[in-house]
Write a structure and sequence with these properties.
about 100 residues, alpha+beta, three-stranded mixed β-sheet, about 20% helix
């Protein structure tokens, strides 16, 4: 399980009733990501995803692969395979 605040070098926050663990499949491994909250689960068509702007060098933008609009909200699309380094994925794979 990976705490996304720690991974993205954000300020720590106490877990509360809104804190969630999102379980995903990365390279055939089930990995949990701790997030502050989840508003909804939605399927976004690839045609609705645009490239992210290249206006900053902030650490978090390393993981952003696109920006989508859903209703009136802007959604940042993260590449979960980039959240973990190849070495970390290999280490996890070798544990199982």
């Amino acid at each position: 399980i990976i705490d996304m605040r720690i991974r993205l070098k954000l300020e720590e926050k106490k877990y509360d009733e809104r804190t969630c663990i999102i379980i995903t499949n990365v390279n055939d491994l089930l990995i949990g990501f701790i997030v502050d909250s989840v508003e909804e689960v939605a399927k976004i068509n690839e045609s609705n995803v645009s490239e992210p702007p290249k206006v900053t060098s902030e650490y978090i933008y390393t993981y952003i692969t696109g920006i989508a609009k859903l209703n009136n909200d802007i959604i940042l699309v993260l590449d979960l395979k980039k959240i973990l380094s190849e070495k970390e994925l290999e280490l996890i794979t070798n544990l199982f």
